[in-house]
Design a protein that fits this description.
2 copies of one chain form a homodimer. Chain A is an all-alpha fold. Chain A is 73% helix and 1% strand. The first copy, chain A, is built from 17 helices and 2 strands.
Chain lengths: 346, 346
Amino acid sequence: MSTATALAGRPDANLGVLRARALLPPVLRSWIERLGGELSQICGYQLGMYDVDGRPTGTVSGKLLRPAFALLCSAATGGRSEDVVPAAAAIELLHNASLIHDDIMDGDRERRHRPTVWARYGVASAILAGDALIALGFEVLASHRHPATAHSTAVLARTLRLLARGQESDLRFETESTVDPDECLAMMAGKTGVLLGCACRLGAAYSPGPPDLAERFERFGVHLGVAFQLVDDILGIWGDPAVTGKPVGADLRARKKSAPVVAALAAGTPASARLADRYACPGELTDAEVARLTEWVEEAGGRAWTLAEADRQVSAAWDLLEGLDLDDQARSSLATLTTQLMTRDH
Amino acid sequence: MSTATALAGRPDANLGVLRARALLPPVLRSWIERLGGELSQICGYQLGMYDVDGRPTGTVSGKLLRPAFALLCSAATGGRSEDVVPAAAAIELLHNASLIHDDIMDGDRERRHRPTVWARYGVASAILAGDALIALGFEVLASHRHPATAHSTAVLARTLRLLARGQESDLRFETESTVDPDECLAMMAGKTGVLLGCACRLGAAYSPGPPDLAERFERFGVHLGVAFQLVDDILGIWGDPAVTGKPVGADLRARKKSAPVVAALAAGTPASARLADRYACPGELTDAEVARLTEWVEEAGGRAWTLAEADRQVSAAWDLLEGLDLDDQARSSLATLTTQLMTRDH
């Protein structure tokens, strides 16, 4: 299947997202409440169940993107939604745990237009809240009586291990002057890829198909996860501040080694050298300097490389599903969701 | 069985400890190595596989107390050691993860006469190392193909949730002027009890006995865990610095709300009031003041309450095993290990 075909789909509200938003919040809420005490409050804040003053919002925020993919991969392979909800909830809980811990490590004070958990409740509570969400993730998955559960728990644990490895590479890259683009892609596969891969794999794991089908869906999800991260990195430099809610060139101001920068630095052009020199100098960047850095990244081919790589990852993902006998409606919804995420502006 | 009988036992090297030291290190090492990169180094440092300069020690340090209990509870109920090694390793990995994260939260810079992980490698790496060890714990357990594995994973996850809750209570107590002794015991059950309870439960879970036998061993382990923590709290005030490696009255200097202090504060005696006043005043304590605080805790009955409660917990533990048809040698080794831990000086 070509990328163009893969990206075709209806632009209306996505089946997977709708199902995730209908099925996940009650499950997530009941597990969060099981924590009890202050931890319930803090973890609930991260999931958008409580506002910054601790008042219930009556909902759960976040895109529930990973649960949506899990539900669609389940539907595509003939699984039943109710079988896959615990796995989808587990992945969403682990995703939020990693956000809480990553925000501490990265020193990020804001997420989704609100203070991050450590900025609001302190580092100690944030470490504990992340641990509690990891515990809940494994508990909701392991408590589900189903033949696929034992192996799924091992897959979830391996995913958490690879996430830690990915975050380690990311932290290390920030202190290195140059990073190999392939290493950058491997880090992205670890940080963003494995969790979406896990969502797609566990989505298929509770279906009647053969075990290698689930593994194929995992690789599908890893490629898509990398593609989405590449788009994120594009938005981190060229995103419209009015839409993203972040300042112009936010990632350049923070001197992040995001994919376009890594590609630009590795390109060996005169613009690469200028970029490397300026990135190595400490001190806050002016708006004019950010604009100049943005031009250099583009001139050195960083943007073009990133867009081409995102396209390549999406193609590689869909190639894996080629020739499989999948439910048409679910396959189409997967394609729609992919398109929406690849063409998003925030 | 009376406490006196329960505490009887041979003082020679314990069967459980010997088995744990023979069986666990190769398993722990191979999983730690699977992490790869810097994380392998940092997690290996926590487990004593590497020294402070990163050189391999050729061993794994730590008492391996929880694995020893898991192996003894397995032997007591007719289980096979090899079936229970993954669960024992999982619990040891989770225990180390919680030590790493607790040390960050508590600001403790030294453990086992070495810098703690965050003091040696920084907070970001320490958060990540804890997460990686949690991941490994679930992975080693969930990868074990055995009918008991699915449920054991749920038990391990619940344990991690309760650990987070216990640590939350502990952090909260430090900011409260008085703490109810029952709340203190509940916190200890959460912080130290549940992990030993989990070790004993999973030890029995891979045995041929009925499921409620494993639950009984869990309650046995929770009581023992609380008893050991109470002894720890006694040593934190009255321990011999030459043996414990900590300054005289270490927990009083840090104004910890350990069990003897909580009991003394709640006793309503004149010494309780003096202790409360001094605990509320900021500033470093002189040696003379520490000596006076120590006397007040004793005068208010804090030491006597703690020792009596430890004895009560040990009795409650052994009452649970009364009348059970257990392997004699393993039961005797469990009793020996209990005695050694209750009468230890560090």
